[in-house]
Structures are given as structure tokens and as C-alpha cells.
Amino acid sequence: MKNVTMKDIADKLNISTVTVSKALSDKDGVSEELKNRIKKVSEEMGYRYNVLAKSMKEGKSYNVGIVIADRFIRDDGDAFYLKMYQSVVKSLSKAGYYGIMEIINHEQEKNIILPSVIQNNKVDGVIILGQMSYEYVSSINNRGIPLVFLDFYDELLEVDSLVSDSFYGSYILTNHLIAQGHRNIGFVGNILSTSSILDRYLGYYKSLLSNGIPLREEWVIADRSEDGTYIEIEFPKEMPTAFVCNNDGVAYLLINKLKKNGYRVPEDISVVGFDNYIFATISNPKLTTVEVDITVMSDEAVKAIVGKINNANYRIGRVVINGKLIIRDSVKKIN
Hints:
Layout: H1 6-13, H2 17-24, H3 32-45, H4 51-58, E1 63-69, H5 80-94, E2 98-104, H6 106-110, H7 116-119, E3 125-129, H8 134-141, E4 147-150, E5 161-164, H9 166-179, E6 185-188, H10 195-210, E7 220-221, E8 242-245, H11 248-260, E9 270-272, H12 278-282, E10 289-291, H13 294-310, E11 318-321, E12 324-326
Parallel strand pairs: 1-2, 1-3, 3-4, 4-5, 5-11, 6-7, 6-8, 8-9
Antiparallel strand pairs: 10-12
Helix pairs in contact: 1-2, 2-3, 5-13, 9-10
């Protein structure tokens, strides 16, 4: 079977090889519609980039570093960030890039030991997946390499970021609980740990304010330390009738602890999560939650990093991706 060339693709689409080359290299001069069509046909025909020759010619590696803190790659089965990583790699592949993951441990982050892919100039740009300390991410930013934050943002840095709509998602979750008759509602998550948890807390708080419900500080319960290490959830003396959790994994752990303490879910206490990932469906009962669109977030992050690699002035600011409410079995309607 002969190798497919750009001329073969051009002949099939009745266009010039120059147009094919521009489309496959993500250069200007080709409409997005035609560019996507060319990429689809090239993939169907089995065309493969000569990445080595291309990188030598253009002075690029066509590698993107995907940096993640090891606290997000846990042994308890929560694979949300691994799923997002896989989605990012698929999006990078479609754009003609390879993704190289580097996991950063607590000591590396604390001592500002930068990822080896950056130190050794192995990548054209970096996507940081999940929040890391300001000192660490600012040190990466100071290297001047194209950089995108995925699933978090930092108010102190002007770095492009892609986030789910944590504020509105938590707001509609809390409103759903209130619509089911709940007025004693707690929140589980350390609001000082990540920007997304803070936004989810603020969405919860806004819902309470909008409905004339006072915030009870003893019902805002930490699930982790400020550096992201998970801790034992401590129940208040007086329990609310419902909890808003900052993610599905925490909701799953909370439900198990409630059961061990003699509470029934949702008969005694209702629980909602966030993400609509694996824990939402293996939980008993299945979780009412907000779905995060991982595919759209990954595609937009890759579009941003490729844009920044090709144009030093390319900016997207902070892009917020909407989620949707998924209603299951973990909420009871009360009088």
C-alpha cells in the first residue's frame, strides 16, 4: 500500500496542494470549514505527517507538555483528571501534536522544581491540568513558554484559562435542593484549596442569599487541606437536610460516611455532587450532579495552546464552559 501524499488529498478534494499544506499545518488562508474537511479526508485516507522533517524545518517539536500535580492522580479510583488528560491528548493528535504528561509531586511543587519537559526544552507549550500553587505556576509562566490553565484560573496571573462554569453549576444545584423543600443545606469543600471549589461555594452561597436562607458557617465543611491533601470529613453537631459537594468523588465519600453513621441517603440527608463522572453512577444512590463537558474543555484548551504556539500575541482570556444539571436519585423532596 503506497504512502498517501498531500497531492493525493488535493486531487481527491480538487484543491491545490498548497491549500492542503496550510490546512494540515493550521496556517491562515484556509477557512475553518475547509480545514476541518481536509483534516477529515486526510485521516480517512491514512495520511501521516512526517513530524520529524516538519519539526526540523519549522523549529518546533510538535510536543505539548501536560503538567499535573500527583494529588489529582489518586489511588481511590477518582480518574477525572486522567479522563481529561486522555481527552486533551486526542484533541492534540487531531491538531498534529503529541501530549507529554509530567506528574509533579508535593516536594517538586513546594521547592519550585520545574517540569523536566520545560527544563530540557522538549515542548512547544504547556497545559497545566488542575490547580497548582501560585509560586509554581508563576515560575512556569516566567519562562515565557506558551501556557494555558485547564480547569482552574489564577486571579494574579494573566494566563489564558479554560474552566467549567463552577459558579452557575453550584447555583443551580443548590436551587434544585431548595425547590425540593430543603432550607438547611451544607457545603463540603475547602474553599481555599482551588479556584473551582471557591466558585462552587460562591454559587451555593448566592443561591442561599437569593432565597433568603442564612449561611451557617458550621455547615461549610472542609474535605482537604489548603495544599489539596484529603482529610477526614467532620460532621457538625446539628446536621443539615442536604449537602452540596464540590465534586462527585467527595459526594461518594460523604454518602458512605453518612451511612456508617446511621443516616439514610436521601431519606434522611440529600447529597449532590459535581462533574458527572464515574462516582455519580457507582454511588448508591446515584448522584444528582452537574455534568462537566470534558470534550469541549479539552478541544478549547488545545485550540488555545496551538494558537499561542503559532502566534505570541494570541489570547483567549478566561473561557467558561457551561455544564448541565443531571437529576438522579440522591435528593429527596421534603415538606
